[in-house]
């Protein structure tokens, strides 16, 4: 425990769990804000900016080694104005200064440690620094002394370097105008070939270790397969999804995915779990189920949603939490690993032998002498090998999993970062809504509705603008482009799951605010930060799709769909001009453009507009919806009217029932096929 009486710094007034973890360090930490920035200017002192997040293992290590060390803290306090930032609260600062560290060192990661001039321009930086020279890295005190000395004795050169780095950042943040290029299928084919060249045909995924879940690359490849019929694209998706879900990257007992794999075969993960990974992977697995009809993919997605509702959701008020830590009791992965003896004690010797073989639990272990559960072969193949009935095996495994899960629940759990972020809630609402469409589980829809309501009330200001983050009764920080665009996407998905018109009304209202606040008045596209934000050293238009989709990609996603729902050409044109802005990015860097490419596929496909006229809950209406959600048709919008009167949605205008029974209209560009009341005929029209 921290000695709370000895040191307390200004972070004690923050709500972020990550910042609060540092509130009793001997370091004189400031949050980013007026007070720290003014002091730096007045004293002409350099700033030491440290950026991390609560689920980050090496952030905890650096805190233990350096920020809790009285001598190191004294050096920090003497030489610098020290500012601590939670990257999940301030993605704008994280993006700018991570780009700076990558320019300076050609690598990045967290914790990020970057030194700024009093006018916030970066001149030196890195990631984790040990307390003394080791791992081929200089000790932190040595780095600080050298930086401080350079700032004092070679101030002109330091300021010059800061100007050069800032100029480079400005250049990076400018998007090159593609000059009359056209959005064509060639971009999709080129992207597919790029993914194929990096594909690991043994273990799935792309590139070598460490391996990150390709949360947007896989949905793009599914769309490419759907568009072109190229079976190779589907094979890449299936192998990757299967290997990830059978490896240690997936929590075999509790459901949900860890952040990434440290090896090429998805065995040893970095154990933190992020809401955004799970939200996006749920969509990828559900789409793979729609495309292949293999229940395995649906089961992984529903297990993941059940994990989120159990561990990452405020059931009382609504809202999804942000992350779960990698460490418990100060040890990474301790909560998740097992020894054969533990398993025997819990499920009995006879069953334990089969269970341990299935999940690769051995006396020598596969992770630091202990065992991460992984599946070597699917149940049917494993059962054949043991000459056992597959249903008998599945019962044994389910029983063993349940008992081990219950035993694990008694362990000390990893820390939970329970702040509620508007953007991440948006993508989780989208995943949950899809879960409701495919399973009919009412708890998924209820969680979506409660969370959307939470954002629209607790994370909204009186002027209608959104806020970024909520915790402990306090909402603050103006929302970013990604908060608007992800949340609007969530509202559209929620409308298409519940058919409550108010969600679409709110989506439309927020879309107008998003264009007004973040749209570039002098050009195309959107800025990362808006009119309500402070001015930083650069204003970015980045559309890099990394661990999460860029705010710009999801703005395109949301506007393309709203344009169809509302028959709004202004939204359509704004989406297309923004997508066109990233032509060169999609061409040259497809692996960082996964969401952009999904939107390109939507645009090039002539999306289907599906209007259903029928009572919600009516057997025929539900049969139509079940048929619709059971097929892979990614480029579509769906609207439902319970009666012909009072319809404000253009797609539903004038649509009536045939023979007083649930009726479906399948349209393209508002030109409709003859209506049908027959489920089989409807499925044929979808193809």
Could you characterize the architecture of this molecule?
The structure is a single chain. By secondary structure, the protein is of the alpha+beta class. It folds into 4 domains: 10-173, 3-Layer(aba) Sandwich (Glutaredoxin), CATH 3.40.30.10; 185-329 and 417-604, Glycosyltransferase (Alpha/alpha barrel), CATH 1.50.10; 334-413, no CATH class; 608-686. The chain contains 26 helices and 19 strands. A 5-stranded mixed β-sheet has the order 1-3-2-4-5, with helices on both faces. The protein has a 4-stranded mixed β-sheet with strand order 17-16-18-19, with helices on both faces. A 3-stranded antiparallel β-sheet has the order 8-9-12. A hairpin with a 2-residue loop joins strand 10 and strand 11. Helix 8 packs antiparallel against helix 24 (594-604), helix 18 (442-457) packs across helix 19 and helix 20 packs across helix 21. The longest helix has 20 residues, at 390-409. The protein is globular, with a radius of gyration of 26 Å. It starts with 16 loop residues before the first helix and ends with a helix. The model has no long low-confidence stretch (mean pLDDT 96).
């Amino acid at each position: 425990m921290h000695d709370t009486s000895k040191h307390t710094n200004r972070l004690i007034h923050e709500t972020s769990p990550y910042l609060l973890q540092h509130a009793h360090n001997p370091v004189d930490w400031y949050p980013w804000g007026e007070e720290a920035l003014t002091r730096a200017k007045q004293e002409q002192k350099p700033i030491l900016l440290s950026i991390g997040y609560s689920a980050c293992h090496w952030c905890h290590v650096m805190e233990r080694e350096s920020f809790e060390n009285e001598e190191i803290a004294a050096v920090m306090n003497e030489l610098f104005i020290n500012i601590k930032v939670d990257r999940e609260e301030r993605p704008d600062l994280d993006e700018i200064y991570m780009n700076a560290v990558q320019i300076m060192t050609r690598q990045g990661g967290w914790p990020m440690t970057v030194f700024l001039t009093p006018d916030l321009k970066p001149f030196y930086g890195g990631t984790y620094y040990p307390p003394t020279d080791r791992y081929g890295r200089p000790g932190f005190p040595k780095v600080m002394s050298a930086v401080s000395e350079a700032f004092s004795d070679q101030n002109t050169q330091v300021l010059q370097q800061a100007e050069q780095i800032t100029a480079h950042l400005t250049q990076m943040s400018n998007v090159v105008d593609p000059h009359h290029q056209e959005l064509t299928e060639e971009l999709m084919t080129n992207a597919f070939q790029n993914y194929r060249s990096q594909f690991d045909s043994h273990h799935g995924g792309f590139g070598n270790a460490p391996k990150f879940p390709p949360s947007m690359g896989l949905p793009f490849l599914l769309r490419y397969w759907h568009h072109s019929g190229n079976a190779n694209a589907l094979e890449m998706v299936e192998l990757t999804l299967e290997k990830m879900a059978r490896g240690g990257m997936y929590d075999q007992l509790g459901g949900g995915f860890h952040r990434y794999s440290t090896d090429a075969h998805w065995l040893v993960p970095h154990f933190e779990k992020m809401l955004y990974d799970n939200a996006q992977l749920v969509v990828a697995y559900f789409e793979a189920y729609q495309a292949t009809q293999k229940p395995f993919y649906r089961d992984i997605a529903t297990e993941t949603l059940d994990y989120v509702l159990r561990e990452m959701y405020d059931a009382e008020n609504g809202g999804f939490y942000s992350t779960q830590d990698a460490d418990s009791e100060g040890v990474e992965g301790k909560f998740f690993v097992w020894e054969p003896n533990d398993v025997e004690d819990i499920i009995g010797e006879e069953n334990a032998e089969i269970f341990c073989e299935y999940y690769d639990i051995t006396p020598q272990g596969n992770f630091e002498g202990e065992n991460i559960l992984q599946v070597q072969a699917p149940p049917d193949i494993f059962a054949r090998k043991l000459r056992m009935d597959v249903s008998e095996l599945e019962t044994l495994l389910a029983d063993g999993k349940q008992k081990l899960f219950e035993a694990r629940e008694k362990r000390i759990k990893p820390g939970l970062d329970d702040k509620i972020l508007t953007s991440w809630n948006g993508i989780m609402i989208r995943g949950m809504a899809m879960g409701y469409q495919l399973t009919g589980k009412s708890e998924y829809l209820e969680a979506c509705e409660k969370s959307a309501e939470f954002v629209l009330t607790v994370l909204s200001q009186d002027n209608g603008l959104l806020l970024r983050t909520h915790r402990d009764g306090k909402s603050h920080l103006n929302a970013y482009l990604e908060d608007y665009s992800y949340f609007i996407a969530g509202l559209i998905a929620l409308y298409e799951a519940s058919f409550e018109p108010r969600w679409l009304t709110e989506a439309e209202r927020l879309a107008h605010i998003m264009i007004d606040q973040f749209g570039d008045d002098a050009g195309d596209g959107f800025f990362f930060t808006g009119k309500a934000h402070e001015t930083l050293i650069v204003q970015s238009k980045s559309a890099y799709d990394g661990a999460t989709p860029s705010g710009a990609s999801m703005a395109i996603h949301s506007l393309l769909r709203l344009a169809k729902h509302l028959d709004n050409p202004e939204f359509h044109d704004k989406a297309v001009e923004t997508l066109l802005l990233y032509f060169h990015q999609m061409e040259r860097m497809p692996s960082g453009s996964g969401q952009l490419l999904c939107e390109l596929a939507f645009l090039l496909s002539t999306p289907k507009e599906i209007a259903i006229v029928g009572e919600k809950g009516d057997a025929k209406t539900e049969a139509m919806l079940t048929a619709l959600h059971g097929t892979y048709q990614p480029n579509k919008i769906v609207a439902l009217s319970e009666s012909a009167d009072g319809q404000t949605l253009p797609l539903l205008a004038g649509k009536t029932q045939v023979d007083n029974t649930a009726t479906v209209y399948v349209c393209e560009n508002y030109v409709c096929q003859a209506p049908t009341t027959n489920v089989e005929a409807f499925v044929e029209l979808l193809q």
